[in-house]
């Protein structure tokens, strides 16, 4: 399976999309590069929610590996999202190119780092990693499979069981120019935490809030006026992950002063009066002489 990401992750194909080497290589050849920002945390959450589910081809008995390829430093919290995956037994390999942050790669990747972190100076040099990385991946899968067989246990990957693990009915209300309220209906099995992610749809740094699983509402504040926001509410469990809720809404534009009037004119002064703009703390008044021939 493959997903590309910038500020908005995109699934290119699911685990179950291709069944032969030739089909997969043809898909890679036809892949179009997606430029943009580097929201790695959002991308890892997308992989967990969308790509590692049974209906996307993930088999319960199979080991789950995520290979992250990035050429920059993440603009959101990649470590928190990576930790969620690792807590669920998903192994992460991190490969950096050019401007990737090696410290961040080491935070995101699974242990042991000498096997899971790679960094090269430019894209053509990635070919030098293919042989070693292939051997390491196959060896890790065999090792983990042998350990589980020896222990006579099969580690189940968490499966979303609908209302048991997933909140429903996200409502966005009390929207102002600076804030909005979120409420949702909790799942039958309350999560340990909620991770609320919100960011402007036209690009901007995602912000995150972690809530206790007993809470099912949140006020988002200090927002930018007249801006469309994307909101995600993600339930996090110790051993499972439910589907997230998503919503979109726009903050209101800032209110404007109205009914501007000019009075008390003299040879060097005028008085201005207006109806106040709701919520304004200061006003900036600009005055300039009209060009010759124009109206006062």
Automatic annotation (TrEMBL):
Main location: secreted
Keyword Secreted among UniProt keywords: yes
Protein name: COKA1 protein
Subcellular compartments: Secreted, Extracellular space, Extracellular matrix
Keywords attached to this entry: Extracellular matrix, Secreted
Pfam hit, one: VWA
Superkingdom, taxonomy of origin: Eukaryota
Domain Fibronectin type-III: 166-255
PANTHER family: COLLAGEN ALPHA, COLLAGEN ALPHA-1(XX) CHAIN
Domain VWFA: 1-133
InterPro entries per UniProt: ECM_Assembly_Org, FN3_dom, FN3_sf, Ig-like_fold, VWF_A, vWFA_dom_sf
Gene name tied to this protein: Col20a1
